[in-house]
Amino acid sequence: MAATVYDEMRGKDGSVLPHYDSYHAWLEAMAPERLVQKRNEAEVMFHRLGITFAVYGEEAGGERLIPFDIIPRIIPAADWHILERGLVQRVKALNLFLQDVYHDRAILKAGLIPQEKVLGNAQFRPLMQGVNLPGDIYAHITGVDIVCTGSGEFYVLEDNLRVPSGVSYMLENRRMMMRLFPELFARQSVQPVDHYPDLLLETLRGVAPLGVADPVVALLTPGAFNSAYFEHTFLAQQMGIELVEGQDLIVRDNYVYMRTTRGPRRVDVIYRRIDDDFIDPRAFRPDSMLGVPGLMDAYRAGRVTLANAVGTGVADDKSMYVHVPDMIEFYLGEKPILKNVPTYELRKKDHMQYVLEHLAELVVKEVHGSGGYGMLVGPAATSAQRDDFRERIVASPEKYIAQPTLALSTCPTFVDAGIAPRHVDLRPFVLSGKETRIVPGGLTRVALREGSLVVNSSQGGGTKDTWVLER
User: Fold this and answer.
1) pTM higher than 0.85, yes or no?
2) Which of 2-6, 66-70, 349-353, 354-358 has the lowest mean pLDDT?
3) In three state form, how does the secondary structure of the chain look?
4) CA-CA-CA-CA torsion for 370, 285, 225, 372, nearest 10 degrees?
5) pLDDT band at residue 455, thresholds of 50, 70 and 90?
6) Do 220 and 244 touch, CB atoms closer than 8 A?
7) Is a pLDDT exceeding 80 seen at residue 90?
8) Phi/psi at 439 (nearest 5 deg)?
9) 154, 289, 309, 453: which sits with the fewest CB atoms below 10 Å from its CB?
10) How do strand 217-220 and strand 242-244 relate by DSSP bridges?
11) Is the Cβ–Cβ distance between 31 and 59 less than 8 Å?
12) Closest CA to 189 of 415, 431, 440, 461
């Protein structure tokens, strides 16, 4: 891993790297007050469009605008080629793993992954055993979090295979940049991302139950109080499909129907943005008001496709992350293109001992945590915070993993003090259906606080447009 921080725009000698040349020349000629004006315009437009996210646990309002940085992140074509190949390889292996653990369990029989780690996992769904899915696809939409530590050096931080979010911000960020700076897109060839909704709809229609020639697709949302509700409405509108809540769907004779003004209409594919636990009160939590009673019966009978499949969470558990390189070699017979971050499993006594002795140097994460919560960034934490985490680890070591603090790359970012480097990560979105496809780019998240490595919007991070160059 790189010992120093890699600046994606400038080389070690301070010179501008070739892929930023054209943009840098434009930026140098831009008056600072015009950048401020454009940033203000973007904020007004995002407010008008309602592009906000809910912050759980906050009483006052609870809705925030995600800060948008008007300086794009630029990825050269050669780097994207590495990323694309690595992402396709990784997601193919993850889908093969899910198919395997719910059927033959060859990887467990081979002893590559401890059986109790899978079958005893909180996200393993026994009622999915033996269920055959169209194309054997479990994760139709995967968001893979990537960090860069040097030119062409990429590490996967985590795989999001349950209900990955953020793609609407990728699309709206591009639209915003094209509105604000149309001249930039005439200066250099930036690969498009606006066809993502078409690819998503094509992917969903391609995994309809057997024998359905013209499938009806609907997006199932928990409702307006969900943190990603803007994204749900946005994607449904972009794909031209119905946005439904649990109360809008009924199950009859193992078929799913949505209520319409013209009577019930059969639904063949459901892009669900509800966690497993809440999707069917008869199968999971009986107190769920968000799901559809009987949905799992229809699903197991092969009468409806759910994207993503129920039970995918067993593959994006952070303790399973350490085994993905083994999955790639076992199922594909290939060496991993993208690297994993070295990871300590605190369920192992020697790993736990090392982590407890080096808390000030490591990042500790909850196995089932998300959104930047339940995490300790050792170098930035106080001694009191480290002591608190030490107690948590000792009480329940199996709930945690730890990793070295990576030197995340930085991108130029427009902050109050002017243009300054800030740490970034990237979440590309991989679509798996009849083929595996990725739009060139993804959601770049940026840690707006100086020196911070936490990019999550819930923790004060922002987003920026991601440009993948044509050549």
Assistant:
1) yes
2) 2-6
3) CCCCCCECCECCCCCECHHHHHHHHHHHCCCHHHHHHHHHHHHHHHHHHCCEEECCCCCCCCEEECCEEEEEEEECHHHHHHHHHHHHHHHHHHHHHHHHHCCCCHHHHCCCCCHHHHHCCCCCCHHHCCCCCHHHCCCCEEEEEEEEEECCEEEEEEEECCCCCCHHHHHHHHHHHHHHCHHHHHHCCECCCCCHHHHHHHHHHCCCCCCCCCCCEEEECCCCCCCCHHHHHHHHHHHCCEEECHHHEEEECCEEEECCCCCCEEECEEEECCCHHHHCCCCCCCCCCCCCCCHHHHHHCCCCEEECCCCCHHHHCCCCHHHHHHHHHHHHCCCCCCEECCCEECCCHHHHHHHHHCHHHEEEEECCCCCCCCEEEHHHCCHHHHHHHHHHHHHCHHHEEEEECCCCCEEEEEECCEEEEEEEEEECEEEECCCEEECCCCEEEECCCCCCCCCCHHHCCEEEEEEEECC
4) -10
5) confident
6) yes
7) yes
8) -80, 145
9) 289
10) parallel
11) no
12) 440
Tokens of residue 386, six digits: 């480290």
Q: Minimal CA–CA distance to 426: which of 73, 125, 3? A: 73
pLDDT tens string 263-301: 999 999 999 999 999 999 999 999 999 999 999 999 999
Which amino acid is located at 394 in the chain?
Answer: V
Query: What is the tens place of the pLDDT at every residue in 334-384?
Result: 999 999 999 999 989 999 999 999 999 999 988 876 655 678 888 888 899
Give the sign of the dihedral formed by CA 301, CA 305, CA 310, CA 314.
positive
Helix 196-205 to helix 229-239 angle (10° resolution) is 80
Structure tokens at 260: 């319409």
Residues in contact with 210: Cβ distance below 8 Å, sequence separation at least 6, in sequence order:
134, 302
Residues of the chain with pLDDT > 90, as a percent, come to 78
Is the pLDDT assigned to residue 56 strictly greater than 50? no
> 216 — phi, psi (to 5°)?
-95, 125
Nearest of 236, 181, 152 to residue 70 by alpha carbon = 181
pLDDT in tens, 157-198: 999 999 999 999 999 999 999 999 999 998 889 999 999 999
Residues 6+ apart with CB under 8 A from 428: 83, 87, 143, 144, 146, 438, 439, 441, 442
